[in-house]
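Quick one, tokens below:
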């Protein structure tokens, strides 16, 4: 069974850093694009970043550009989201996801991990 399991969330002060991890089982990232999303209370889920395995291209949403970095370690079948200069408005549940390269939608999702940034 294909699964994504996240870890690394927690409580951090504004200006601090966290690194989220997302380990895949039952499939590899070889032919998949990976992404990170978040959902804050009362708000819709938003896409933050994605990384394509086909050409290594990356995308960052404007509010996290320059602060967040997406990466993957194929040997560990794990993706990461490094988050620096965190702000209180970054507080949300963060989700990792994967989709076959070229697919329109992400079809594999992690369970979510809470990130809380205190002011």
């Amino acid at each position: 069974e294909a699964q994504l399991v996240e870890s690394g969330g927690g409580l951090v002060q504004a200006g601090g850093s966290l690194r989220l991890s997302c380990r895949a089982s039952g499939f590899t990232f070889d032919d998949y694009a990976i992404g990170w999303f978040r959902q804050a209370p009362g708000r819709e889920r938003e896409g933050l970043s994605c990384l394509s395995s086909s050409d290594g291209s990356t995308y960052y949403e404007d509010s996290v550009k320059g602060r967040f970095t997406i990466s993957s370690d194929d040997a560990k079948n794990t993706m990461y989201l490094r988050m620096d200069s965190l702000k209180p408005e970054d507080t949300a549940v963060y989700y990792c996801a994967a989709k076959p390269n070229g697919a329109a939608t992400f079809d594999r999702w992690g369970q979510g991990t809470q990130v809380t940034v205190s002011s």
